[in-house]
Structures are given as C-alpha cells and as structure tokens.
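Repro:
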Amino acid sequence: MDSVDNEGDVDNSMGVRPICDYVELPRVAKEIPMVTKWEDDIINRASQQNCFRISIANSDKSRYVVKCRGAAEGCKWVVRATKIKNSEAFSIRTYIKIHSCSHATSSNGIKRKRTPRCVAAIVHMDYPGLFEKPTLKTLVGLVQRTFGVEMSYATCLRGKQQVVSDWHGSPEEGYKKLTSYLHMLKKVNPNTKTSLLLDSEKRFKYLFVALGASIEGFEYMGKVIPMDATFLKIVKGGVLIIATAQDLNLHHYPLPFSVVDGEKNDSLNWFFTQLKTVIPDSTELVFVADINPCLIKVVAEAYPMSKHGYCIWKLSHNVEVHVKQGRDEVALQFRKVAQVYLEAEFEQQYQEFRRGIQGVIKVRRMYLLPMFETVSDKMTKWFNRHRKDAAARPSSRKLVLYVENKMHKIILKGEKLQVTQLNTFELEYSVTGTDGKTYLVDLHHKTCSCRKFDIDKYPCVHAIGAAIKCLKH
C-alpha cells in the first residue's frame, strides 16, 4: 500500500486546510461502487466548499487518481484508488488530506462547476429521505451559502430529479423492473388483477392494477364509483386514473388504478375493459366523474346497465368561474341545493338560492414504479388500520360507527311519530313526520317517499318509526 498521510489536526494558520467536516471524508480501504458518482458527490463537493481545484491525474479501468490543481506548485493533496479484483468497485489506497498550496492562490479565479449532482449531494446530506421538502428557492440559497456559487432553478430541479434516481433508480430502470414488480405484487396480494400493455415497439403503453383486497371488499361498499384523473409529473408523462367507492362510514375505498397516456377514447376504452373484469356491469352501479365527453361515451358503451352522474364538488367549481363576486358562497349554496332528495324540495331550494345570490353577484360568464409502490403501500396501511378498528368493536354492534351515530340521533324522534299500518304482509306504513307531512314507508323494499331511505341505504326517521311499530305488533 502506498504511503498515507491521514492523521492529525491541521494548522489553518499555516495556510493548509483539510476537507471540511461537512462532507464525508475519503479514507483508506473505503470501497467505491461507482467512481464517477463518488467523484461528483464527495471530491467535487469538497473542492467547491474548500475553494480548491482538482484534476484527474490518471483514470483507466484499474486505477483512479485525483490531485489538487496546485500539484505543479508542490501541493501534496491526492486521492488514489485501484480496482478490486473480480469486482467493478474500487478501493482507496492513498489519501493525503493536507493542502500545502496557498489559500489565496488556490481560491483565486476558480470557475466552479454547477452540476445537478452537486445539488443532489446537498439534498442527500441535509434532507435525507425528504427530497420533496427543499423548494427550488431554498436550494438556490443553500448552494450559494455552501459553495459560494449561483445555481439556476433549472439546475436545482435536475438535482432533485437526480436524488429520485439515486433512491429509486432511473425511469428506464423502473420500466425494466415493472414486470417483476407486478409478479411479486400478485404473489403477496392474492387475487390481485394486473394488466400491462406494450406498444408495437415493446415499450410501455398502459398499466392497470386492482389489489385483491379491493376487489373482494367492493361487494360490501356503496355502488357509486367516483373517478378522477391526474397528470403525472414524471419524465414520461401520462395520466393516473383512480376509481374509488365509499363505505357506510364515509371512508374512501380504493378500487383499481391505472396509468394511461391521456383521457382519450382508446385509453379509456382499455381502462374500462380491464375494470369490467373485476367489477361487472350492473343496474346498481353509478359512475361519478367530471364533464368529459369521452368518459361519458365510454362508460355508456362499457357499462350499458349502469348510470353516469356528475361530481357536485367539481360542478360547483365550474359554477365559480362564471362568478365575479362571492364565489365561495355561490359554490356552497350550489352544493347545498344539489344534495336535496326530492324534486319539489330542489325547486324550493333553487329559488331561494337565486333570490339570495342576485343581490351579490352578476352571472354572465412520487417515476412510475416508486409511485405504484407508494400507492399499494398506502392502501395496505388503510386496509390494516380499518381492519383493526373493525375487530376492536364488540360483536354485538352490527352497525358501522357512522350509521350507529345517525341512528342514535333519530331513534328517539322515530318513537314519537304517528304511524299507521297499511299492509301487514308487504310491511307498508303511513308515517306523519315532524313537519306534518305524510310519508309512505315500505320496509320490505326499503323505501320511503322522503327518498332518504332509498338513496342513503339506511333507515330515515320515518322508517325507524315504522320499524318500531312493526316490532310492537
């Protein structure tokens, strides 16, 4: 092994300086898996921070030698590494950390490299595991304070992308591992359905994933399926389509998700073809989405027995864009009107909405593979948490918590209602509500003329009153 000077403190008053403790110091016998990455992360960063220039003295398949640019004037700083036998890695054999060159000479006129790898090194060191936390503005200032150089926003952005590649691999590596990942996903999640479509050149085109737990649990969910799509902020682009349901506790229940190239006829047709293999067509199904002509057309073709509705929340935001003043109030009132149960009640609410608003406004105008891994991991945690919550509830309680709380509030009101039995065999009743109106309740078909029992799928106050009457007789 070559002679090494790697001990002792350094007297800065003599003009010689060690590499700052801010970076990971090279050490003899340290193994380097990737020489070029190590040079950028450690050597270049140290030279930037300590104001000295470096040069690669020798570099080939078996050795790697980096010296200070002041070597011609006698500076002894050097890092020498040689390749390990039967391995692609290198091992540091010599490290002399003392600079004997003049501080003024070494720092004067240095043109420092502004590379994404330099930014990535800062994120790795200062924000381990939190590559999203430092904003570009924060990084620009951090690079300036650390290295004394100005870094552009574009270079900082590429640096953050480099961090993602360091942790999760490059996008290209992710696509290569996709088939293996889907195989393991199905192995650890029984009954999981996946589908991967490639184009004519064997490149990624569409992907569909439905976890087995999601498929099995959908039987017990409400049959209303909200759908949404979001553009992916990855190199290859694309759109992530997510379908969800809702349990009686009003928790979102994740259903299949897919990556396609856009909300277009071909991609949507492919998605719904795959969706139909796990959720068959039924008259009970209702798809809820935004006003997308392609989506409406494809849903009608793939699920002819189902219905299509619009998301109230998104419609309320569409209304907002036509409002100059009081937008939040308009959106709130719109949602309130949209959530009534009866047509007559809707007309009444809508007229009140118009009268109340007219005086205020004038209306006249995470790389693909890591992303899927994060989604599946999040869904697994949700299932596990809610399974534990359900197991902790006494077996004597048959209702979910949300419905139980609802029933607790209305059962006392139901006991006080006037109920008349109309048909004993069909379990039909006439109930006088607290508003003085008469409502027809059919316990056999689970309906009430107030429409709440029909839509919410759990008893309204009138159905509670009828059920109490039924139990007494």
